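Human: We require from you a protein record containing the residue sequence and its fold in token form, and nothing else.

Assistant:
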Amino acid sequence: MQIETEGATLNYEISGDSSNPALVLWHGAGCTLRMWDTALKGLKDSFFCIAFDIRGAGQSQVNTKLSDQFTFEQYSEDVNLILKELDVKKLHVWSMAWGTRAAIAYCSLNPEKVLSAVFSDASIGKADVTAQKEGLKRALSIQDKGGVPRFDLPLGWNEHLDSDTAQFSLSAASKFNLSDVIEGLTMPIRIMTGDYDPNLHSSKKILQRLPSAELKILEGVGHGSILQRPDLTVENFIEFHNSLGLS
């Protein structure tokens, strides 16, 4: 589905019954809404799922490459435009890695809308891509030894109409001071990060500043947890949601 807005055409997809609790899904860096495809199989019976490509990424297009449109404030307005189109007033949030930065910004800008949030692979510090790759390699080795089946990556999970704007879209993270807003988040939050993800160190630091949050460490899991272990992450997401008794 697509929606036109100033300077962009936004691509989004919905799954599940609209009478279920709404769940907005923020994709990671270099990813598209397709990264959620496997996880959606375990979510769509319980949630009205809304996955989208941030402007410039995936199938979302922009009419100009001006950098002032690549901001978390703009992405938040884009999400709210989609929510208005769908007549959604309250929602839950789930995000992964870079998308968690965007989701934290969204929650801080729209606290009245967000019922709860799960931040996977969470970090607001500088990303160590090399360490992420090394941790993932070790985690996959452990999973193989333990007989954990590997999941195929969803088709199109990292395919973009325009690779340049997809890269530009990530610059939004450097324009928003997440450290200034993190302590203001009061909705129920679960931070969910693998023990082989170097972002776990940052996740623990975030936890210290978030009185409303809890930390779930996923054993034998590296960076990119939702792509790597959609089964385990969905199981823990639903467990957290059920513990809240929210709708």
Q: What stands out?
A: The chain has one domain: 2-244.
